[in-house]
Amino acid sequence: MRPVAAALSHSANCYSWMVFLCMPASIIGRMTSPLALLRRPAGIALSTLVASLALSACGGGGGSAGTSAGAGSSGTAPTTPTTPTTPTTPTTPVVTAPDPIPADFTSYQNLCAAPRTGVDAGGLAFPDRQGTLLDEMKFLRGWADRYYLWYSEIPSSVRMADYTTAIGYFGALKTPGLTASGKAKDRFHFTYTTAEWDALNTAGEEVGYGLTWSRNATTPPRTWLAAIVEPDSPAAKAGVQRGDMLVAVDGVDFVETGTTAGVATLNAGLFPEAAGEAHRLTIRRGASTFDVNLNAAVVASASVKNAKVLDTANGKVGYLTFDDFNAVAEKQLIDAFAMFKAQGVTDLVIDMRYNGGGLLYIAAELAYMVTGPATAGKTFEQLQYNDKTAPDAPIPFRNSAYGFASPNPARAGQALPYLGLNRVTVLATSGTCSASEAVINGLRGVDVQVDVIGGQTCGKPYGFTPVDNCGTTYFSIEFQGVNAKGFGDFADGFAPTCAVSDDLSRAQGDPAEGMLAAALNYRASGTCPVSRAKAVNMELVRPQAKEIAILPRK
């Protein structure tokens, strides 16, 4: 998965340059922001990645050693110039023809340099056949030319012969273009091992402690606070609470450490690779500092938490924490909305402050459960592909369950409960991305009032259809989504109706927690809270696959 070393590098000003100027292309292809941080790719040692970041310079700094002094400077007397020689005729540069793009790229799919044997998690035999690295690259090049949204902007200078891995080559198969604000046009190009992706998407499972951090920086001085503690996880059982501050990892100072060995220890302890790994975190809570011993495990995250009904002076308000549009979420959302409906909820707060996105069909189901039959069959989102792909029918507000496979699935075709609301409140931060933003945009497209309380959302109007090949799942932007009014230009995110900082001092769902309290107040009075405190910019530490919009493969 993602290399960790970039997350905990040494100097923000120096190393942000060094990562991109000094690291080999095969690694750069994996270093996509911000999750180039969470897992190191198989076969690449962490010490190698850290060492590449520890270089003191990329070819020196300052000026050229041969630069002369300017006018008015002192120095030795000039020497007599020599007679210039007759210039030689320059040689004609060798122009290398670009790699041919295979029109029959599907014939290379599942031809693998190292075919898998056996069966997948679903009991189906792997489709891999013996092939070569070149076969894998040919498939990727043809697939990108056919489906990548900006296929015509892939540089012709990207050549298969220059890469030693399929993943490294894939990392170069994207537009180098920039947005008007100077950001990379494509910031969402990445891979997972297929086994990891299947576990994460189907069962919501990953190896760890069930602990998600919110950070201000990856370089010293670092402030990382516990944002999400999964119920019944190793972190929860050890007593870690939301808002706890990380002080040390396995005895190494987390806040200030910048040495290569120290960074390696921090990464190993924060992001264990195997269940059963034991590490010690030092936590500060208020005036107390204490150690917690954690054993990594395969953690199944709950996508929907804290579903409850809040009795207010203005009626019953439903509330739920919603963290992930994965397959597990489908049944959990249905159960939550059935409870809301049974208890006569007349307003709703959806807490998606940490929801990075996921399955668009579940987003369309959620939007329907907010609105009901008034939107059944109407356009939730229209996907816009490249000019080689015929447009699909719009994704409608779905009034029945798709039936995604999960440990506790919803029945396919099951009628969805609904609340029939024309207004909803969304709690959001910069960690609210992609499919979460599609819910906001889709509802606004049919004139449902969506009040956003919190911060600016992250701005990801794009999506993928994941493609598996030879044990790697590839994510490459294939479409941009627009709502029923044709709007989808939110690359800078949605601005909040009321700007409120994430309140890590209280649990999500607590009516006194800052964002929820502001939402309830705005619902009752139409006014936003006034704060003179300067908000600290924090972001979640999480896999990039949790910040996407996904469409099932047909």
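The record above closes out task 2.4. Task 2.5 opens with a second protein, given below.
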Amino acid sequence: MNSAFERAVFEVGSSWALCLIAKATLVTALGLCAAQIAGRKRAAFRHALLAGMFGILLTLPVVSALAPPVGIVLRGASARNITKPLALQNYETSPLARRSSGIRGWSEASRWPATTWLVGAWIAGSVVFLLAAALGLRQVLRFRKSGHLWRHGQAVAHGLAFGAGVRRRVDVLLHADLAGPMACGIARPAIVFPADAPNWNTEDLNRAMVHELEHVVRRDWAIHCAARIVCALYWFHPLVWIAWRRLNLEAERACDDAVLEHSEPTAYADQLVAVARRLAAAAKSPVPAMASRADLVSRVNAVLDGGQRRGRAGALCVTAAMAAAALLVLTVSPLRIVAAPQSVSGAGVGRIRTDVKLVITQVKVTYPSGNTVEGLGASDFELTEDGIPQSIHICEFQKADGADPNLDYYILGYYPANTRADGQFRKINVIVKIPSSARVEYRAGYYVNQSIGVAQSGVAQSPNDGGTPPPYDRPPVLIFKKEPDYSDEARKAKYQGTVLLNVEINDSGLVGQVQVVRSLGLGLDEKAIEAVKQWRFKPATKDGQPVSASMQLEVNFRLL
């Protein structure tokens, strides 16, 4: 159970898509729980809560992609075997994997086919459900376009509009293919009645008109369309569909409450049942009608419940719900799960330590007039450290949050050629090739802290802890090393630390199984594994014969 949980934590923490699904699950569950807790509140208030939840789900993918990641350390997650599947091991040691130095992370690279199929299925399902929603919208537009203007109904709507709070024109139409009344439209709202509506008695017509006018006032049509898009995006998620049904129910109950302000509950309940019977014999409506068959019992019980609070939610409640939604999406979107570091016994295992140092400097480039120079790439800069040219791996242009363009700057990142941790000052010099007259501002350099520098060694240090002796006379010797890269997520989050790996080296000097002992997350584990898989060793020997050996690799990620 614990191993399965730890594996699930790693999968969620290393995949943007799984993180998005986990966040959507959390948000939807919170929205449904909030609506359930507010069961005795006004239906309009519960609808506002659910509408805010759907707003979060709609913006969650965009904000999650743009917001800098924030790691959540999960205590209790221990070492995880990363390379159990043989197919993954075969891929990682293949020439294709060795050439793929620009891959975003081990997890995505090694499972490329499976990820591609899953993402493809997600996109294909979303397209299908969006097409279904579009067909429903087309049917509604057909009703609106081909409906006949009902002058008497228009007069009734005009007389009731002021009391309902409607301050704009609402068209009232008749259509022969519609079984029950419905409201539609955003900029130009309309209420469409079935063709026999002129034969309804005055009380039934007034109740139906008040119900649909309340939909117009509440702008339920726009909310319905946005929520339908969310359901298409998360078509595989059962909680989203449950929330969708609850959202429609609360919208109808909120409109029922408006009717009950001027109507007798029993008479209105009888009308709901009658309209539902009409809909039972008709084709499915593309939008919620006045009395759809779904949740009819719940609506009738609420209508007849004298203790139920009724009325609109009020501007304060709606504003509070929207503010809570905005706060929740900004809080949840950047979160990523990261396993906590764990200690482990290292008896009988040699160790190699290596540093990954990424130097980041902000560079401001301006014309003589003071305006920022935009559109520059890495090839437009020359960067040296202590006079030694450096290869620029990161070049990003950062727009200032405010309106002042003079605060814009470039971010340049490089892996220094001089990796000694001698505590000396490293002088940085940046030159812009074009335009040559540009003014360049940047930091003068940095100091390498001796406390974080670890001398690299190509020979695995034999253990000296008094434990089990290693199964070899001579440890493996590193003869080829691919330096790990910093992950974009960790760099943007200014995240650093140490990844500890257990590595199996076979008698040919190739890296086999890799196990994460101490995890950092945010893509750094994957970057370390991706590089180590390409390392080559002179194998360990026992009595002069090559043998397999285990070793620990300590990868120190540092931002300078």
